Amino acid sequence: MIDPSVAKHGRILRLVLTLLTASVSVAGAIWLEDLSHQVASLRSVRRHLLETGFVMFTLFAIAVPVGTTLHAITARDRGRRPSRAWGNAAIVLAYGAAMAVLAWLVTPSISATLSGGRGGGSAGAYAAWLVFVLIPFAAMACAGGLYTPDEVSAGPLEAHASAPRQEQRKPAPLLSRALVITAIAGWALGAIPFVLLVIGRLVR
Questions:
Q1: What pLDDT tens digit does each residue of the chain (204 aa) get?
Q2: Host domain of residue 83
Q3: Fewest Cβ atoms nearer than 10 Å: which of 17, 51, 128, 169?
């Protein structure tokens, strides 16, 4: 049985690490946005992704590795392996790279004229899409959510007629259920603004 004081200490430490990761990510995104006004390569990226996209993508790109690194402190106490967390981080970063490509393709449809409409127009749709498909993963990384278990429940198993029922465990799939659910939920909300951006790109 886990000592309640130890469990409470672990929760407090995870909260501190979550807040620290979020603070570092926000500060890093702000610093890079400011630096992009001085460095030509960053300025080019910001021009293509627009300021909103640049800030969100840098926030995402910082939160994932920083959160994975800092939450390794409590991984052993939670029965989690850093190697699996870094595998999840690699998947999430690859997903973020794919989102960056999509953003790069749709941003030409965002103009000052369209963004002046009610609700922000195309600029609002762009921001909403990124909030839905990127920020949940950044929040997950900040909270240590990439440290998923190595095993999942396979349901109760009748080991012996006279023995109590035992829970059978099986290796967790390579693609974590938490990542899949987060992606599905994000795209369920982000699909409409993304479709609007694609339509705007096609008719431009």
A1: 455 665 677 789 999 999 999 999 999 999 999 999 999 999 999 999 999 999 999 999 999 999 999 999 988 877 788 899 999 999 999 999 999 999 999 988 775 444 445 445 788 899 999 999 999 999 999 999 999 886 555 555 444 444 455 556 666 666 788 899 999 999 999 999 999 999 888 886
A2: 4-203
A3: 51
Rounded CA separation 95/85 (Å): 15
Reduce the DSSP state of residue 65 to 3 states and report it.
helix
Q: Which amino acid is at 6?
A: V
Residues 6+ apart with CB under 8 A from 79: 149
Q: Which two tokens stand for residue 5?
A: 């004081």
From CA 200, how far away is CA 180, in angstroms rounded? 29
Count of the separate structural domains present in the chain: 1
Q: What are phi and psi of 157, to 5 degrees?
A: -125, 130
